[in-house]
Design a protein that fits this description.
By secondary structure, the chain is α+β, with helices and mostly antiparallel strands. The chain has three helices and eight strands, in the order βαβββαβαβββ. It has an eight-stranded mixed sheet with strand order 2-3-4-1-5-8-7-6. The radius of gyration is 14 Å and the shape is globular.
Length: about 120
């Protein structure tokens, strides 16, 4: 499994206030989208999320998003290595993802940029 990088997940109260700081910090414009009632802004290596507390409560449990070349391969490697896949693989606006709990209890999202087949 090839790991391409990681994205830090940050829940914020006010996305409009937070985005300019992270754009300046990352030197890149935010890519914005909505997903499941949550407003999201991807800025460099940061994924800012804002929305109802009931939605953010679940999102806060995921430590980071790990970019991989192929979510299916990640699924295989993770399960063979003792991780528990909690959700997915599923299609997302940018590719596919899955959520996995590592044997140490930490939860990560694994995402690729492959279109759903």
């Amino acid at each position: 499994m090839d790991i391409l990088g990681a994205t830090l997940r940050i829940c914020v109260d006010d996305l409009e206030t937070a985005v300019p700081f992270y754009e300046k910090l990352a030197g890149a414009p935010a890519l914005r989208f909505e997903r499941g009632g949550v407003s999201v802004a991807a800025v460099g290596c940061f994924l800012l999320m804002s929305g109802p507390e009931s939605k953010l409560e679940v999102l806060r449990k995921v430590s980071a998003t790990i970019a991989v070349t192929d979510v299916d391969e990640a699924h295989r490697v993770l399960t063979e290595s003792g991780a528990h896949v909690v959700a997915g693989p599923v299609a997302t606006p940018g590719g596919r993802n899955l959520i996995a709990m590592h044997p140490d209890g930490y939860i990560y999202e694994y995402a690729d940029r492959r279109a759903a087949e």
